[in-house]
Design a protein that fits this description.
InterPro entries: Dimeric_a/b-barrel, Sec-metab_biosynth-assoc, YCII. Residues 2-86 form the YCII-related domain. Belongs to the YciI family. This is YCII-related protein. By secondary structure, the protein is an alpha+beta fold. It has one domain: Alpha-Beta Plaits. The chain is built from 3 helices and 4 strands. The protein has a 4-stranded antiparallel sheet with strand order 2-3-1-4, covered by helices on one side.
């Protein structure tokens, strides 16, 4: 599996809200194709969305980076940082 973590830039909540419908549609398509194991927003202490966590059913980090390059959040410049890395499921 590959985990993707994107942390929003400061003040990015409006960008997130504006792009959310397109972002979720992209994730739904990936889920329908069997590529997504889990996806959801990261939350701050007030419960506001401030990042993204996506677990992909693949071992290919390059593939995940390529997919995420097309993500509406990425294209809109939402993330201050993003990282994709392999993870081993133990439980």
């Amino acid at each position: 599996m590959v985990v993707f973590i994107g942390k929003d830039r400061p003040g990015g909540l409006e960008t997130r809200k504006a792009q959310r419908e397109k972002h979720v549609a992209m994730l739904k398509d990936l889920q329908d194709r069997g590529l997504i194991h889990f996806a959801g927003p990261l939350l701050d202490d007030q419960g506001e969305m401030n990042g993204s966590l996506i677990i992909f059913d693949t071992e290919d980090v390059e593939k995940v980076n390529s997919i995420m390059d097309q993500d509406p959040y990425v294209k809109a410049g939402l993330f201050a940082s993003r990282e994709a890395m392999r993870v081993k499921k133990v439980m």
